[in-house]
Description:
Order of helices and strands: HEHEEHHH
Structural class: mainly alpha
Shape: elongated
Mean pLDDT: 85
Helix content: 40-55%
Oligomer: single chain
Number of helices: 5
Strand order of the largest sheet: 1-2-3
Low-confidence stretches: none
Largest sheet: 3 strands, parallel
Amino acid sequence: xxxxxxxxxxIILVSHQILNQISFIHxxxxxxxxxxxxxxxxxxxxxLYYENNTINNATDYLKKxxxxxxxxxxxxxxxxxxxxxxxxxxxxxxxxxxxxxxxxGRH
Length: 107
């Protein structure tokens, strides 16, 4: 990715998931600020989401990205990604609760 970025080659992840909520590559590229065109319900508020198997919507998005007609706020996107961060206070609290139940048996 770094080589492509340094050569100013545009990077767009086009992803089509069937029966899979999310792939870590989505989170990785989104956190780096790259456009991700996807149909993952779990992150439909992040990146460029197209519903289910509506490939026509996906191709419309792709064309707009390539033509420079579509942009999005990477700052806002990164804020939304925080819910997946292992350092997020809510996530730490939930992990601790799960570990307490598993290791100590307390609720």
